[in-house]
Amino acid sequence: MIHRGLLLLCLAGCSSAGPTAAANSTIRVTARQYAWTFEYPGGATSEELRLTAGEEVTLMITSRDVIHALSIPEFKVKVDAVPGRLATVTFRAGAPGTYDAPCAEYCGLGHSTCGTKVVVVARDR
Ligand SMILES: [Cu+2]
Q1: What pTM was computed for the model?
Q2: Which has fewest Cβ within 10 Å: 39, 62, 89, 106?
Q3: What's the rounded mean pLDDT across residues 95-115?
């Protein structure tokens, strides 16, 4: 049973799309065969990268199995995800929209399904 106040609060402020990174935040990125997990400050996670337009973010990227590579061509980002190592990249998200983020390193038989999406939402004014 959902509390009525909580339901109304969610109707007003919850997005079914999940968390979004705040300005200058660091997001932990973990690759695995064949998916990605993005962990935001505070512990919320998503399987697609969610950013705010115009905000700079830093990604800390690793893998828990084989070598993958996070590629976000729209933002000129391409970083290897290597087990036991932590790579970082800092960039600024562009215009609101949904962008492809394919895995750019052959990572096994399911490699072609290893991509994710980057969802950029407009900044609240
Ligand atoms: Cu991969």
Answers
A1: 0.83
A2: 106
A3: 98
